[in-house]
Amino acid sequence: MCSSVAVSKDDLTRASIIDAAQKLFRQFGLAKTTMEDIARSIGKGKSSLYYYYSTKEDIFVAVVEREKDLIFKEIQGVIASQKTAESKLRVMAHSKYKSMLKRMDMYNIAQIELPDHLCVFKAIGKRYDEIEIELVKNIISYGIEKGEFKSLSKSNLTLVSTVFTNSLKGLQFALTFGEYAGNAHSLIDATIDVLVHGIKK
Fold first, then answer.
1. Could you state, in order of their start, the residue ranges of all structural domains in the chain?
2. What is the pLDDT of residues 122-133, one digit of tens each?
3. Which numeric CATH code is attached to 60-197?
4. Residue 138 needs a FRET pair 20 to 30 A away by CA distance; which of 25, 47, 176, 192 works?
């Protein structure tokens, strides 16, 4: 009983550290935010932060991971409200794009201020790519079960889901950093149309 209370308290403390750090990172950037700033903002001494995180960069990684988790919760929420597999894929793509736009400041910090930690963010990205591919596989499987999509072998299902995920990832990157943002939703819909066309019955 005591250990579960201790774990719960630690989780609450980690959450408060991440909340405070995220606000400071957004306001001042990573370079100008110190461990002391983060500790002060939650009413703790700097030494207490080191029990949970070794560096402010570790805290930033925790912030990014939590944001990724929130993105997928948002996506799962909008997917659940849709009745067809095609509409699930469509709202997933739009929801992910909107979520990325809301978090561009954190992405910019990672790119500009953490070049030595890019391998860490690539590892995080790879893990969430795998989660997204699995999500797409589940949606396509749902479409096959409901008679929307053609039957696919296990290997083809994985292949199609991987192509779908990476195609949208490339498009979203181009929309976010390229010159097509004004036509974002039309381009996302057009991409979904092309990708879904190949597996429709």
1. 1-54, 60-197
2. 777 788 889 999
3. 1.10.357.10
4. 176
